[in-house]
Amino acid sequence: YPGLYIVATPIGNLGDLSARALAVLKACVAVACEDTRVTGKLLHHAGIKQRLIRYDDHADGSVRERLLAMATQEAVALVSDAGTPLISDPGYKLVREARERGIAVVSVPGPSALIVALTLSGLPTDRFLFGGFLPVKDKARRDVLGELGAVRATLVFYETSPRLLDALAAIEAVLPGREVAVARELTKKFEECRSGSVAELTDHYTSHPPKGEIVLIIAPPGEASTDDLDIDALLQAELA
Ligand code: SAM
Q: I need a labelling partner for 207 at 20 to 30 A (CA). Which of 33, 46, 143, 164 fits?
């Protein structure tokens, strides 16, 4: 059927490409992607030959126009390098315009690193706030942590390994005592999700410099780790 198909792809383990994703990627007339080499490899692995069209929300509108024109006649798939398109990845403008023009938009759901990390973290999942990538500059990063840290929700951020220690230092400065989890290499061979105080995680990742992609998860206010509680003051109050 004609339309724009938002197709999630694996974030590491190729076994996570769904049967429905495979069927759509095979049947569509073209696949819009961030990087034709990355998507080319995935499709090659799946035994699919497809027309690949590089798409980026920020590029001039002509590629978008072409994709939308195609989607009125046939099925066009949108994928990103990994995970769910539009989630810290291109696609928002394409979906918005497709909807405005009455073109069918269909989701073919699958992995997203933020959900995988949240479910592994052991932190509350009933209410969470996804903050996208933490800013690179320290002042901006601290501002975001200050603003979102006041919200009663678990916070989820995307991060890169070279910036992890700086991000942990900013968390300790702005949100002292919060329990944190670092999820790395999700669905891959060396998947890990390590949680604890910022001091514990900083110690660990100073002696074991992290590699690969990272999701940072921060406990909501009031979920402070016991390190942060003034045990003496609590005991005094109890005894008084
Ligand atoms: N759209 C993707 C999704 O749905 O997860 C996210 C794309 S964003 C450009 C890339 C970021 O996602 C990485 O910097 C990292 O924070 C996170 N990420 C993606 N794959 C990951 C993995 N296998 N393990 C940990 N984090 C991952």
A: 143
